[in-house]
Each structure stands twice: as C-alpha cells, then as structure tokens.
Amino acid sequence: MSRPTLVLIDGVAFAPEEARISVLDRGFLYGDGVFETLRVYRGVPFALDEHLDRWLSSAARLEIALPLPREALRRELIEAVRRSGLEEAFLRAMLTRGEGPLGLDVSTLETPARRVVFVGPVQPPPPEAYARGVGVVLYRGVRPTDGNVAEGAKVTNYVVAVLATTQARRAGAHEALLVDARDRILEGASSSFFLVRDGVLITAPESAGVLAGITRAHVLSAARAAGLPCEERAPGPEDLAAADEAFLTSTIREVLPVVRVGDQVVGAGVPGAVTRRLASAHAVQVSRYIDEFSD
Ligand SMILES: Cc1ncc(COP(=O)(O)O)c(C=O)c1O
C-alpha cells in the first residue's frame, strides 16, 4: 500500500496532511474498530459488496452500531473513489467505536461510530516478486481476536501482525505465516496462505480463526470451477515439506507465489503451474467484475 491522497472523515473530504481525529477516539485508545482494504481497478472498487458484508459483520461482532445504513456507506466508498480521481488505487475503510471519556465502558460514548476512508495509489509487490516468487517465515503468535467472539473480525489491532511482519523483514522475507500452538499454518500476517500438494489445493478453514479472505474465496471458487480438488484444513509441517507449490492471496497482492518458507525451498523453488493458472483465473474474475460493475 502507500500513502493516501484523499481522506474522508465522517463523509467530509480532507487532504491527508489536514485530516485529524480526536485523541479520545477509541480506535486510537484501544484499537477498538474494524476496517477493510479494497482494491480499485479502472475506477471501480473490486468486490465492493463482499467487503461491505465483511466490514459490517466485523462491526456486528464487536457490537459497533453503524453510523449510517449500509447503502449510504456503500455510496460513500464509491464517492471517495470518484473524488480521488484515481483509476488504480487502494481504499481503506475504517469504522471506530467513536469518541468519549477515557475508560472501557461503551455507555459513556459521546459520538456515533466514526468513519475514516483513505484512497491512494496502489503499490502491489514489484513484477519480479510475481515472476520469481517470494520467501516467507513462520511466526508463532496469538492475536487479540483468536479464540473469542471477535474471531475472524478484521479489527484495527494488528499488533501481532506488525511484530510478525517485522520479523519477516529482518529475515529478508516478504511475509510471516502465523503458526498456532499445534504447528498448523493459519494465514499470513496480512494475507491468506495456500499450498498445493499432490495436485490438491490446501488452505486453512475459516473455523481455524483465519480471516475470511475475499481473494481466498475467489481463488477457491476458481479452483473448484477448474476441477482442482480443494481441502480446507490448516497445513502442518509435513504438508509444507511435501508441497509442490505455495502462494499468498490478498486484495493488494492478488495471487503471489511463495518459493521459500524459512530455509525450506517449496517444490522446485519457482512459481508453479497451478499458482499461475489460479492467478490468471483471478485476473479474469476481476476484469469481468469491473466490466459489469454498476452502482
Ligand atoms: C490476516 C489477514 N488474512 C488475510 C487477508 C487477505 O484478505 P483479502 O483477500 O480479503 O484482502 C488479510 C488482508 O488484509 C489479512 O489481514
């Protein structure tokens, strides 16, 4: 991602350097908020309704009341893209619980939930990353939402993901994969993870507490449509050792081949044929969506 060129706060547009929210905002004080990252192609926010569904379901899990009806939020996101004037962009939509005195009690809130929308030029990984594949590291960690009612919600507290990414960058790797106490690989710090073993596509199920990745869902449906067997189970070390291919998916990265996990080379150490096929299938899905989009 990159720096935004436009910020909307509660629907009002600001240049990023002018955009301010209160220090009493609970998003700032407690990481008490939810967010979405969308990718805009040819001026159209891809998978807009799926992102809205996930955003609103994250808010519902945190019992954050919506400040506007869904349709008004949808219009606001489309309008933010239009105002940015950008054709290829990222859009980040945030909802914090709002503002009030210090303290955890939500009954003291003085404002409705606050909306902050960022739009800026998108910066996906460079073409070499797709051509050669990237390295990732394994990271053991438990996130604030793991194993509780907020599991699977996209909450603004990404502190474990930040630490995992810091470790990955120190090791010269692109991403960190979160591993649970049973040695199962769940997902990347900010991506979904897949591997291909003996012609079967394997990725952790949502029941393992991973984010319901929107790119993940599109890739799984493209794989099923192509007749590729898919297993939703969290891969373990033996799957990694026997993997022929691996890749990450996310809104910004789309489908990014993984050729190394720690010191271990995946398969032949180059992006594989299944990964390439799914990346093309995803690109076709995106293109069709953009062609057919109407607001
Ligand atoms: C923890 C996590 N998993 C997976 C993803 C990928 O989800 P999506 O494909 O919806 O961008 C993200 C994206 O931000 C993420 O933060």
Question: How would you sum up this structure, described in words?
Answer:
- There is one protein chain.
- With 295 residues, this protein is an alpha+beta fold.
- The chain folds into 2 domains: 6-121, D-amino Acid Aminotransferase, Chain A, domain 1; 127-290, Alpha-Beta Barrel (D-amino Acid Aminotransferase, Chain A, domain 2).
- 31% of the residues lie in helices and 27% in strands.
- The strands form 2 sheets. Strands 7, 8, 9, 10, 11, 12, 13, 14 and 15 form a 9-stranded mixed beta sheet that branches.
- A hairpin with a 2-residue loop joins strand 14 (254-261) and strand 15 (264-265).
- The two termini are 25 Å apart.
- Pyridoxal-5'-phosphate binds next to helix 6 and strand 13.
Summarize this, please?
31% of the residues lie in helices and 27% in strands. It is α+β, with helices and mostly antiparallel strands.
